[in-house]
Design a protein that fits this description.
By secondary structure, the protein is mainly α. 67% of the residues lie in helices and 0% in strands. InterPro entries: Globin-like_sf, Globin/Proto, Globin_bac-like_CS, Hemoglobin_trunc.
């Protein structure tokens, strides 16, 4: 008898459930068709250039990491490589010409805290530029996938 009651209770709950939420298309798919790359969602070349400018400015204003960025003597080169990196990593047409992440960060002894602060700064720039939530999640996944090539290497 209790099995029948449990089954009937499940059916009653299922009938009361709003099924439209299950089949609803996520907001980012409404805004961007499935063929839209992260590169396009970040605004293409112009959007990525704005992001890089905002990311670097945020790093330079952040007391936890600014000394690392103040030491850079050729900021234009770093911005160029950062644009290439973001373009290539997000499915854009440009090729990244810089070092791999491990080689670029080897010997810098970047801490977990510094890595997280840099990620936070990137999100400040993404928010400033009105990047949608799903694209921000994609960026976070990319950043997180690189952490072992950046932290304490």
């Amino acid at each position: 008898m209790s099995m029948v009651c449990n089954t009937l209770a499940c059916f009653a709950i299922a009938d009361a459930f709003d099924h439209s939420e299950i089949n609803e298309v996520p907001q980012y798919q409404k805004e961007f068709p499935m063929t839209t790359t992260l590169y396009q969602r970040l605004g293409g070349a112009d959007g990525i250039a704005r992001l890089v400018d905002d990311i670097i400015a945020t790093h330079l204003a952040n007391p936890l990491v600014k000394t690392r960025f103040e030491k850079i003597t050729d900021m234009a080169h770093i911005k160029k490589l950062s644009c290439e990196f973001l373009t290539t990593g997000s499915g854009g047409p440009q090729t990244y010409t810089g070092q791999g992440m491990l080689a670029a960060h080897k010997g810098m002894n970047i801490s977990e805290q510094e890595f997280l602060v840099v990620v936070d700064d990137i999100f400040v720039a993404l928010n400033k530029n009105g990047i949608d939530e799903d694209s921000k999640k994609d960026v976070l996944a990319i950043l997180y996938s690189l952490k072992d090539q950046i932290i304490r290497v």
